[in-house]
Amino acid sequence: MRISPKIDMVPVVHGAEMFAREARRLCSENKYDCIAVDISPVFQDDLAEAADELPLISALIAFRQEIYGDGSIGIDDDEYGNDPEPACYYIPIDPCDAMIEGIRQARQRRVPFHCVGAYTLRDELQMNMVPMPDEYSINKIGFDAYTLLCRKAVSHMFRAEVLDDAVSDIRHGYEAFLPYYTANFLADAESVADNLRDLQKRYGNILAIVHISRFDAVMKRLNDESIRRDDTDAAAVEQPYAIIKRYINPDHLYFALSELPFVAAKSQLERQNPFASPMDPTDAVKDLFIDTRENYYDNREQTLHLSPVRIQAALTYLRNLTVMSGRLIPTLFDIVEAAKGVGGNAYAIRVLKNAKYYPFLPMVNDDDVVNVGINRISLKENTYPDSEREVYGASNLFRDTELFWRKLDIKPDPTLMQKKRYRYSWDPRGVCSHVPEDTRIEGFNEHVRNKAARILTESMARSEKFTSSVKDGIDIRETLRNWHTGGVYVKELPPAKNKVDTVVIVFDDGHDSLYPNRTTWYAEHVDESTLSFYSTNPFDDLIGPGVARSVYGGLALLFPPRSVPNIFRCAEAAGVTGCAAQLTAGSMMFAKERNVAFLAAKAPSLQMRTLATRFKKHLVWIPLSTFSTETLSRMRRFHVLNGKHVRAWASRFIGDEL
Question: What's the whole-model pTM score?
Answer without folding.
Answer: 0.73
